[in-house]
Amino acid sequence: MVEDNIKEILLIRLEDLGYHLIRVKIISVNGRKTLQIMAERISDRGMDIADCTFLSRQISAFLDVEDPITSAYTLEVSSGGLARPLTSLDDYKYFKDTKVKITLKETYLGKKSYKGFLKGLDKQGSIVLETEENEMKINFSEIDKSNIDLNWAIENKNTQLKNKEII
Prior knowledge:
Blueprint: H1 2-17, E1 19-29, E2 32-41, H2 49-66, E3 73-78, H3 89-94, E4 99-108, E5 111-121, E6 127-130, E7 135-138, E8 143-148, H4 150-166
Parallel strand pairs: 2-3
Antiparallel strand pairs: 1-2, 4-5, 4-8, 5-6, 6-7
Helix pairs in contact: 1-2
C-alpha cells in the first residue's frame, strides 16, 4: 500500500528532525490526489505553522528522492488537531485520562463505537477504556479508528485557558 510505503519513508526521518508522525493518508477527490501528513513535535506534542512549513519542505525533498506516488498530488502537512487520532499504543499511554471515541472493527455488546476516558494499558498491553456503563479492555488490533473526543477537548482547552488567566 502506498500510504504504508510513505509512512516507512518518513517515520525515522521525521524522528531525526524532532517530530512524531501521527498519520499518513491519501485522499482523492475529483481525480486530484492530496497526501495528508499529520505530525507533532516530539518534545511537547505541539505543532504550529512554522513547524508545518518546515516539515512540508523536508517531506517534499524526501518524497522527491523516493518518488512513492507516481501521479501528481498536493502535499498537506498539519497537526493532529483537537480531535487528534490515536494511532499507536504509545498514544493510549500518553493520553491517559483523556476522553476518546473508539470505533471497533467488529460489533461488541451491540455497538461499534464507544466514548470514555482512557485509563492507559493493562499488564497484558490491552487498552483500558472507562465508559459510563463499564470498563472495557480492548486489543489495539480490534480498533478501526480512535480520536480524542472533540467536545471534551474544546471544554478542556477552555478550562485550561481560564485557569491560566486566573494565575
